[in-house]
Predict the 3D structure of the following.
Amino acid sequence: MYIRKPRTPKEAGQELLRFLNETHPDPEYCNLLMQDHPDFDPAVTDAAGMTALMSAAFHGQYGIMEYIMDNANPDINARDHNGHTALMHVIQGDRHEGRAGMVRSLIEAGADMERESDLGIRPLTAAIFSSDADIVRILLEHHCNITKEDGSGRTPLQQARNVGRENIVDMIAAEGRRRTTEAFRAEAAKGTNKPRRILRRKTAPGSATP
C-alpha cells in the first residue's frame, strides 16, 4: 500500500527503484510515488548499477518508462555494471507484447543503437539472440550498423546464421542489399549533377565557324 510522506529526490528515486525491482512491481504504486515526487532522482542505482529507467524497461513497465523519459530527464544511455543500457534491458528482459513499442520509443528518444555491453554485444545482436524479428526490424528501420563485428568477431549476419535464425538472416541480407542499392544510386546522382564541360570542335585556321 502506498503511504504518502515527505521524501528527498534521492529517497523517492530509491523507493521507485525498489518497487520496480520486485517480482511483480505495482504500476499504481509507482505512478502515485512519481506524481507525489516529480523531482525524484532518475540517476539512483541499485547494487547492479540499474536505474529506474532500466528496471522499468527490463520488466516491461511501458507506462512507467514513458513517464520517466517524459518527466525526469534521465540519461537514456546510462549503463549498468555490465554495460547494459535501457535499450538492452528491454531486448533482454521480460517478453511481452509491448516490447517492440518500448524499443521504438527509446530509439526515438535518443537511445544509442551502437552502444556495446562489456562483452561487446550491441542491441541488434541481442535481438538476434532473443529471436525477436520485430525488434530486429525496428533496429534496421532506424539504420543500425549491420556490418560491424561484435565482441566475438562476428557481424550481425554471421551471428544470425550461427544461431540458425534464418528469418533474421533474410531480413539483414535484404537490408544490406537495399543499402547497397541506395548508396549506388546516390553516387550515380552525384555524377549526373556535376557540371558538364562543353567540348567545342576545333576548326582549321582561317575556316569559318559554323
Notes: Residues 127-178 form a domain with the Serine Threonine Protein Phosphatase 5, Tetratricopeptide repeat fold (CATH 1.25.40). The chain has two domains: 1-112, 127-178. The mean pLDDT is 89. The two ends are 97 Å apart (CA to CA).
